[in-house]
Every structure is written in C-alpha cells, then in structure tokens.
Fold:
Amino acid sequence: MSVRFIHASDLHIGRKFANIPQPQDGNIRGRLMEARHGAIGRLAATARARAAAHVLLAGDSFDTATPSPVVIRQALAAMGEARDVTWWLLPGNHDNLREAEPLWEEIARDAPGNVVALTDAEPREMGGSAVLLPCPVAFRSGASDPTEPLVTMASGEGMLRIGLAHGGVTDFTDSGASIAPDRDRSAGLDYLALGDWHGRMAVSDRVHYSGTPEQDRFKHGRRGACLCVAIDGPGALPQVEEVETGIFLWSETELPLHPRQDAAAALDAILPGAGRRDVLLRVAATGWAGLPDQVDLHSAAERHAPEFAHFELVTEGLGTHYEAADLDEIDRGGALRLAANALVTEAEAATLSEAERQVAADALARLYAYVREAAK
Structure:
C-alpha cells in the first residue's frame, strides 16, 4: 500500500507584480504573471513524469480573494487539461474561506471533475491507500494553530494519513498562530504538506514546505520548485524529491568595492554569463568608490540592465571617496567648483541625516557625470 503525489503551494495566480518597474519597451510584469499561470502545466508535467496521480496545493493558489473571472477560469481550464491528475486545492490566507467565499463557490460549481476544492476540514480519500486530511484557512489571520483539527480527524485502519495545511511553524508568517512542528507525531501523520513559506524547507522527515513553484521575490535565491513525495506504506519514511519548476530566478548579490578599483569591471565579473533574460537581479554595491568609478559603475549597470528580466543597482551602502583631482575635473575655481565643494561638505556633515548626506553625494556624482559627458 503506497502513494505518490506532488506537493506544491503558493502559486499566487493573478499576482500583478506592481512592485516591479515596467520598462517602456518591455513587459516583465506580463511575463511574470504568465509564468505563474504556466506553473500549472509544469506541475502537471512533473506529476506525469513521476507517475504521481495527485497534486496537493497547500494554499494561496490565487493571489487575492477576488481574482478576475478570466484568471479563475483559465486556471481551472489548465488543471482540467491534465485529466490524469487530481488537483486538491486548499484555501490559504490570501484566498481564505471568509474573504474568498464567492471564489470557492465558483470553483465548486465550475471546476472540472479532476479539481477538488477542500473547503471543509474533513477526510478525503486519495485513491484506495491514502486519506487526505485538509485544514482550510477560514480567516486571513487566525488565533490558533490551523493544524489542531488533524489530531482528531479519523482515517480507516491501515490507511496512509496525509495532512495538508497552510501557515507557519515559526514567526516568518503573519497568517496566524504557529503550527506545532511535531504535528506529524501528535496527529499520527505519514506526511504533512505545508504552504505559506515561499522557500523550500524541511521541518522534519515528515513535515515539509515545498515553497512556491515560481518565485516572486528577492529572498530565496533559487528558482521555484515542487516536491515529489512517495510513501511505501503506513509508518514508512517519505521519499521526498525536489523538482525545479520555476522559470525566473530572483537573485540578490553584493558588490564590495574599494577606492581606485575598476567598479565597472567588478560588476561585469559577478553577472551571470547566460540566461539573463529570465533573471531578476538586485546588486547591492558596498564599500567605497571614487567619483569616476561611480559614474562608470552606473554606466555599466545601464548597459547591462536591458539584458535582464529586471536589473536593480542599489548604492545606499556605497560611500564616495573624494579626491581633489576629481573635483578639479568639475571645475578648478568657478561656480561649479563652489557647488561641488558645498556638496562634499554636506555629504560628510555629521550634523545631517544619512538620507540628507546621501542626497548630497548623489547630486555630486550626477554633477561629475554631467561635466564629464559634456567634455567628451
């Protein structure tokens, strides 16, 4: 008596990615939204490749409680196309039962026969060998462990007990009280499939977060994945395989600099050599750089940015090393030199706030760039 299934969560279908700037000649938000919808097909393909008849979605399949009719119907249609797979959809904190009641009513009414809305905390048979024990989220923020009902949920003798829940075992979530990390033992579970945390995490041998199949933030530093879980029988340890399903890589990297270093070359050295179109990259420059190197750094960033899905250069942690020769390039004694000297004074003034000093430093860097460009 065995079972094999795909564990996934947090598809957040319909997310608009308003926090990502939309370039004038690009459509990164549209590409990100399409990748989230496309995760359905990639999960189905993974299930077929691993001979898994079930896909367990542990909450937040939709990004909001009120997705558009188009988003709902296209998601259900995509799941319906994978007729050989049963999709088990659990309400999470984003698509919780209270706020998303019309959504779940529509799914129950219009979903294909292979899509099951788990809106009740009641055991459901997964074929003839396993029982799925769902814990749907009723409210966006709860006051108790959402997995408490698992302790008293019944299952037939000799059946595999698979728990499905959404919430945090630590304080990384705002969706309610923490889940007991030993819930598998207290509820006699063979496996507890969790959602809410967008990164992959093994809480224990039997308790796992799959993470999202398509990443949506600068946090986890890897492409999205799902888990293929195989359990040979009651009491057997689950065999858990991570399967990469994400298209986009959200990556953060630090660029430490020092004075007289070729900042542009240093940036070039840390950039990925291939696949840039599907990479969202945030580079945090730290340390110190002179005015010429800062201008070269920004020019290099502007040159490389169009090659990426999204490129962001963060310079709040980069200090400016001022040299008289650089200021002389702006002006040796006229009005521009007076302005440059004033900006240096403000950029180094202990009486000003960090934000005010940064504004002065940025203004000086722009002034240097303008003068250097005009001299070409």
The chain has a mean pLDDT of 90. The longest strand covers residues 279-290. The chain has nine helices and 16 strands.
